[in-house]
Amino acid sequence: MTTKVVIYGLSTEGYSLACHFALNGADVQIIDESTPSAITINKDIAKSYPSVQALKDDEPLLAMASIDAAIAKAQVLIFAPRIRKTGQDTKIEINSKFKDAVSNIKKDCNVVYGLGTGFGGNSENISLLEHVTGLKVGKNISYFYYPLSKENIIKSYIGSSDGKENDILKNLFTNDKNFNFLTLSSSEYFHAMDILKQFSSQTSILEVCKFAKDSVTKSDLNSEKLGELFLDDLIDDLFDLRSLSSSFESASSLMYLINGSMKGLDGYIKRLIDEIRLILKRNELKASRTKILLLWTLDQHEMKGEKIEKLQELETKLKDYIGDVESISQPTNIFQNNKTTIVVICSKHDFDYMMKHNKDDSLIMLKANPLCQLIAQK
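Above: the chain's sequence. Below: its structure in C-alpha cell form.
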C-alpha cells in the first residue's frame, strides 16, 4: 500500500525530502505556506525540478488539493516550514505554524518534527500537539524528531516518542538496516553533539586564523583548504545552536562551548568589517567615494533564515562606516560606477562565479573566509 505523506513547508529541505519520497513510490503532497494549497509531487516532477526555485521559475501545471483535506488523509506529516522571524519572535512563529500543520491530523498519523530543538524541546512539542488535536501521543498518534539540514537530508537516526521502530517511516526514509530509532532524549543529545562538533571546529579555525598576519602564513593555511570555508558555511545551522542555547539558564561547561561559538561568529563579523576599513586606509580611499558590494547568493527557500539575518546585520554595521553598501547575487554589469568598488565574497559558490565571470580588474575583492584574503587590489 502506498504511503500518503504530507510535508508542511515548501522549503528546500522539505522539497528535497518530497522528491526523495516520490522517487521511492510514496504518495507525496507538499504544502506551500504562501498559498492555501497542497501540491502533489510525483516522480516526473521530482525528476524534472531539482529545487524549489526551479519549480517556481517554470510554473508547471501541478495537481493541487486543499490543505485540510491533504492533512486529514496523511499517514505521515513532516513539519519543515520556512522560519523567518528572529529573536523572541522565532518561537511564536514556529508554534503558530506547528498548530496550523497538525490541527487536522487524524488518528494513527505519524508526526515528524524537522526543526532542531534544544534539550526537552520535543516534550514541549508533544504537549502542544496533544493540546491542539485532542489526541494522545503513544496511544492514537505517534511523534518523531528528525532535525533537517541542507547538507544531510537523510540521516542515520530518528527520535521516536516510544523509542521503537516504525515500519512506515523506516521504509519511507531508507532501506538501510543501520537506520536507528532512538528515544527523543537520545536523538536530542546526538543532534546536540553534531552541532557542537561543527561549531567548535569552525570557531577554533576562526580564532587561530586571527593570528595569521603575513602572506606566507596565510598561503600555508590556505593550502589546507581553510580558504574554502566561507561565511556562508559558518552560518549553517546557527538556528540549531541557538535552540540548544535556550535549553540552559545557568552557567555550565556546555554553555561555555555554545556561547564561545556564538561569540566567535560575532567576532568574525567584526573582524570582517575591520578588514574592510583597513583596505580603505591602505589604499587611501574615502568612504564617500567607495562602494561595498556584499556578494552572497542565498537560498530564499531554506527552512531557517539565519543567513538572511546575518547578511542584513553585516550590511547594517558596514553602513555605519560606508554609506553605499549593497547586497547582491551573481552580478553582471552592476559594477559600472564612478566609485571604487570592494566586493566581499561570502560563499564558495559566489567565489567560483567571480573567478569565472569577472572581467573588471579595478575591483578589490575580499574573500569572507577565516583568512580574510584579498584577491584583487587596485
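Residues 4-180 form a domain with the Rossmann fold fold (CATH 3.40.50.720).
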